[in-house]
Amino acid sequence: MSTLAVETRARSTRGPLPILAACVLWGTTGTVSSLAPASAPASAVGAAGLVLGGCLLFLTARGTRAVLRTADRRLLLLGAVTVAGYALAFYPAVARTGVAVGTTVALATAPIVLGLRSRPLLTSAAVVGCAALVLGGGDAHVDLIGVGLALVAGLSYAAYSVICAHLIARGHPSRAVVGVVFGGASALTLPVLLVLGVTWVADPAGLAVTAHLAVFTTFAAYLLFARGLRHTGAAAATTLTLAEPAVAAVLGVVVLDERLPLVSWCGMAVLAVALVALARR
Asked: How far is it, in rounded angstroms, from Cα 45 to Cα 196?
């Protein structure tokens, strides 16, 4: 095997693959959150996962004091605000306009904003494939407020990705950066969660859902995403995260016995080809 091939494989292991692994964990969000008690507001489910997961990220990260002391505190605060904004906007968006439209708008916004200039063909193909995948069933419901909230979520995610990538590129440890940003987001989201209500968490189903969202889709997933950001640009990273709805769709078929039309499967194929090409680059 040539030196170039070895270097390419090592770079993929450090960059695209951790991001795609994070997408697998994020893709479980819809299936798991659907198991929450009926009394739990959609935004409260997301807030609970962020509060607990953010605390885990902050408490287990090394070097957070150094990051707080040496990094740009305005960027750290803005990062915390955008992470909290994503969680508080995305779940209500999905509740109002449905998983298909909400997911498409939120996840496609970031790569459109960040990726079209650097990789227009691959980014466009990935966005089109994602749209065909989640909208192919024809059951899309457009709610203007829901679409607006999804746009806020997508822009928040794009801003978070750029901020963390910038801080990591400045030499700060990726895990410490994520710990500080998510710790701040946890503190910002806690009052909102208390207002929305937490009694549903005492239910076994509520506790299990919250634990999964905190440990897997927040703690583990964002550690993987931060590792990938160290070796992958924010534009490429946000385009790679379009793999999330594909994972969610497969889980819906396998776990929830849902059916996907031919258009959705074709969209998944287009998305897969675009993501593989982007990862190879």
From this structure: 10
Helices and strands per DSSP (H, E), number in the chain: 14, 0
d(CA 133, CA 246): 7
Q: What's the CA gap between 43 and 155, in Å, rounded?
A: 18
Q: Kind and range of the H or E element at 276?
A: helix 262-280
| pLDDT tens-digit map of 162-190 | 899 899 888 899 899 999 999 999 999 99
Mean pLDDT of the chain: 81
- 3-state SS class at 212: helix
pLDDT (tens digit, 9 = 90+) per residue, 5-15? Answer: 434 454 545 66
Among 181, 177, 156, smallest CA distance to 88 is for 156
8 Å CB contact between 179 and 68 = no
Digit-coded pLDDT (tens) for 113-129: 666 555 677 677 777 77
Rounded (10°) angle between helices 174-196 and 73-115: 90
Assess contact for 83 and 189: CB atoms under 8 A.
no
